[in-house]
Specification:
The chain has 15 helices and 13 strands.
Length: 550
């Protein structure tokens, strides 16, 4: 048996309970359009047009797994090529949560869990139809950790050339002995954000049973990355696959993004585990509670220790910014969006967060016409037309920045960036008739992007940011409450069929002549509705229909 056949014969998915394909019929957009959330914004019909177009494209990218793939759930695809991608899918789930019963959003991640190796590794990229790994990123020889195409943007063109010899490959300096080599290459072990996606989904859907199903594969995945990617500094290695052609790549090294992501991973597992302890207590599973408590204790220690190393080695107090670390332990000289993973992960303290916010507001670096570029505008190699990861604005990194800002109480700036991104995406949709994979930072057009109809993670702005920041609705399943932030001068806004945690609401705010709003609200189950308007906060216990003036 050759190496490829041996690899394909390996057992997979042993930590995920779902073993065979099982799912509800896959609907078309036309079949479910009248069940999806229906935003209302009378003064911005362009928002609505872009919103519905995004959903329409998303439904074109739904798939039923082929029999030979081994995938276990229907899924939404990034439609980048013929493969499915772990981190693309994780971000796509974030806007799919609002339509959870009617689209295979979070369930799309099932197809990664069911391909998990016995050591916990989960591949970043797999072939959509066959279910096989993206073979150029498989460590067939089971050598030490390496990357095939380190710092070489355009790797798919390089696939047409002869595979490099092992001596020519990039091998990160872990500075420690790893007895058992990984199944995958460094190219295929990037962006461990599955637990974040699952936690964000839970906060909207309230699906505790899903958390119970995914905790074990997530924990095993965490342990595998800790084993294979942590270096002698206590940080984590990464390579070009984190941000394909970013100017920072020549210096990697220990990656700021993946190091902070591992803190985030640990803390998301702690959050999930805490929910499951109560879930297990209600179900009388004491042994499971004891195991979970032990794991949470270890995760807390891991997160604290790693955060301390990040702050010691990656924070530059003089510049007020976080940087990647080179193999020699020195900081890399490039300011990138990776620094803001320190917010969503909780690595930064309040003073460090304040310094990072200053950079976000600096027109010479990150506060460009379209916010937020992935590379600071004053760095060599920055591309004002985008240049892929040399300057483009990307939905996933914006989502990370925005959620991180909110974690530290910078709600106004988070909203400002979200609405800037939404307004620019909508304007470019009006000009070009489509939604793009990424956008240039210094002009309101499609720049040098070449992937159109990208929904895909680019659905975050026209769907999530429209509802969450323009209309102002955010649900919290844990608290069984919806917060509605209204702004003066919006006219008539609202959303029918707003779904979260099994509750469906119809919400309408009609601006009155004196600037107040008449709220008409109804729900099909009990829910708390918090309406915020300026300094006012009105708390309503909604179960049925009511009207109130605010």
């Amino acid at each position: 048996m050759n190496l490829i056949d041996k690899h394909l014969a390996l057992p997979r998915g042993m930590y995920f309970d779902k073993k065979t394909y099982e799912d509800s019929p896959l609907p078309s957009f036309e079949e479910v359009q009248d069940k999806l959330p229906q935003p209302i914004f009378e003064d911005r019909p362009d928002y609505l047009e872009c919103y519905w177009y995004a959903w329409k494209v998303a439904y074109r990218n739904l798939h039923i797994p082929t029999a030979e793939s081994g995938y276990v759930s229907n899924f939404i695809d990034a439609a980048f090529n013929k493969d499915i991608f772990l981190w693309d899918t994780a971000f796509i789930t974030m806007f799919c949560n609002m339509a959870n019963p009617y689209i295979p959003g979070i369930r799309s991640l099932d197809n990664f869990y069911c391909k998990q190796f016995d050591d916990g590794e989960i591949p970043r990229e797999m072939v959509r139809d066959s279910g096989e790994d993206f073979m150029p990123w498989v460590n067939l020889e089971r050598r030490q950790l390496h990357s095939y195409f380190h710092n070489h943007y355009g790797h798919r063109r390089l696939m047409q050339t002869e595979r490099p010899s092992f001596d020519e490959m990039f091998k990160p300096d872990l500075g420690r002995t790893v007895e058992v080599p990984p199944y995958l290459t460094l190219d295929n072990l990037n962006h461990p954000i599955l637990a974040w996606a699952e936690w964000v989904s839970y906060k909207h859907t309230g699906d505790v049973d899903r958390l119970a199903t995914v905790f074990e594969p997530l924990f095993r995945y965490y342990e595998s990355l800790q084993y294979h990617l942590q270096n002698h500094f206590g940080l984590y290695v990464t390579d070009w696959a984190s941000m394909d052609n970013n100017p920072r790549n020549r210096y990697l090294g220990s990656g700021l993004d993946i190091s902070c992501e591992m803190v985030l991973f640990a803390r998301n597992l702690i959050d999930i585990g805490t929910v499951l302890i109560e879930h297990n207590r209600l179900n009388g599973k004491q042994n499971d509670i004891d195991t979970m408590k032990s794991r949470i204790k270890q995760l807390e220690q891991d997160a604290q220790k790693l955060a301390e190393v990040i702050n010691r080695m990656m924070w530059n107090s003089e510049k007020g910014f976080y940087f990647d670390v080179q193999n020699n332990g020195e900081q890399a000289p490039v300011k990138t969006i990776a620094a803001y993973w320190s917010l969503i992960s909780g690595v930064a303290d309040s003073g460090q967060a304040e310094r990072l916010v200053e950079w976000l507001n600096d027109p010479a670096t990150f506060n460009r016409k379209h916010r937020v570029p992935v590379c600071a505008a004053d760095e060599p190699g920055y591309n004002p037309r985008g240049g892929y990861w040399r300057g483009s604005v990307w939905a996933p990194t914006n989502a990370m920045v925005i959620q991180g800002l909110e974690k530290y109480g910078y709600d106004e700036l988070a909203e400002e960036i979200a609405l800037n991104h939404l307004n620019n995406v909508v304007q470019i949709f009006k000009d070009t008739g489509t939604i793009w994979e990424n956008y240039p930072p210094d002009s309101i057009d499609s720049g040098d992007a070449d992937k159109s109809d990208f929904v895909g993670w680019s659905g975050i702005a026209p769907i999530s940011y429209f509802v969450e920041y323009a209309i102002g609705l955010k649900g919290d399943a844990e608290k069984n409450e919806v917060t509605w932030k209204l702004k003066p001068g919006q006219g008539t806004v609202g959303c029918n069929r707003y779904w979260f945690a099994g509750v469906t609401l119809d919400l309408l705010a009609t601006e009155q002549g004196d600037g107040s709003y008449l709220i008409t609200a109804s729900s099909d189950s009990p829910v708390t509705l918090k309406i915020r308007f300026g300094a006012k906060e009105v708390v309503l216990e909604l179960n049925g229909k009511l009207e109130v003036l605010v």
